[in-house]
Amino acid sequence: MATQVAICLLGVISLLIACAGAHRFVKFGYSGTICPEKWGELSPDYSLCSNGTRQSPINIVRAATVVDLSLKPLERDYNPANATLVDNGFNIMLSYGEDVGAMVIDGKNYTLKQMHWHSPSEHTLEGIRYPMEMHLVHASDDGNISVVSILYQYGHADPFLYQLKEKVDELSKEVCAGDEEAHVAAGLVDTKALRRHTNKYYRYVGSLTTPPCTENVIWNVLGKVRDISPEQASTLSSLLGEEYRNNSRPTQPLNGRRVLLYHEAV
């Protein structure tokens, strides 16, 4: 059902996984006077969007990455769990209200909290921007954030998203405009497609890609580009208002950061 601005704020806080701190929500966008280049001027809480030195997304140049033999396989132990599909105005999000499982990084558990989609992709590989990108946002008990990024090219239907087809159609009928957001109970969501083995990924330290652009986020960009059907991508984008259908932040300078590569074959 559609709710008022207080619930919208809860959606934003959910997006930031609470560990980013409580911030006063100020509307941001992707064009005009509230475009990404202006985010840092919209609120003092958003200053890192302009002044931060470890911002995301980035362009990944394979030849410039550093193979790190100390990196471990990306262990993800997710369980089927109840979730809520949310249109918060600036992206479509699947939020989990119970423990869906975790990812292990350097021996620390990062619990999956939510996932959302950007169109087109925010990260680029060799300067190539893909039609869509999904972010799986995790948080540790001590307040750190880690995100798994999956890039999508046009091809076969994405099996994970396919199971949500009826709920996405239901969400499209909900009212979501201005200071409102829409929620649809998605029921038990199968996570099998998200647990697929990954033999290559890129890791770097960056930020959230939406205000307040909180830094020290551990990014894990999967090396294999997955398929999504044009219809699936179009349906997700069309749920948003026209000004948010392109909800991709431009790539940010590396500023000397290293992009590490885990490759199972090395």
Salient structural properties:
Alpha_CA_prokaryot-like, 35% strand, zinc, alpha+beta, 17 strands, 14-stranded mixed sheet, disordered N terminus, 3-stranded mixed sheet, Carbonic Anhydrase II, 266 residues
What's the arrangement of secondary structure elements?
Elements: E1 2-3, H1 5-15, H2 39-42, H3 48-51, E2 59-60, E3 66-67, E4 75-78, E5 81-87, E6 92-96, E7 101-105, E8 108-118, E9 124-125, E10 128-129, E11 132-139, E12 145-154, H4 159-162, H5 165-172, E13 181-189, E14 200-207, E15 215-222, E16 226-228, H6 230-238, E17 260-263
Parallel strand pairs: 2-9, 3-17, 12-15, 12-16
Antiparallel strand pairs: 1-13, 4-7, 5-6, 5-13, 6-8, 7-8, 8-11, 9-10, 11-12, 14-15, 14-17
Helix pairs in contact: 5-6
Written description of the protein model:
The protein has 266 residues and is an alpha+beta fold. It has helices at residues 5-15, 39-42, 48-51, 159-162, 165-172, 230-238, and strands at 2-3, 59-60, 66-67, 75-78, 81-87, 92-96, 101-105, 108-118, 124-125, 128-129, 132-139, 145-154, 181-189, 200-207, 215-222, 226-228, 260-263. It has one domain: Alpha carbonic anhydrase (Carbonic Anhydrase II, Roll), CATH 3.10.200.10. 15% of the residues lie in helices and 35% in strands. The strands form 2 sheets. Strands 1, 3, 4, 5, 6, 7, 8, 11, 12, 13, 14, 15, 16 and 17 form a 14-stranded mixed β-sheet that branches. A 3-stranded mixed β-sheet has the order 2-9-10, with no helix packed on it. Helix 5 (165-172) packs parallel to helix 6. The chain is globular and about 50 Å long. The termini are far apart.
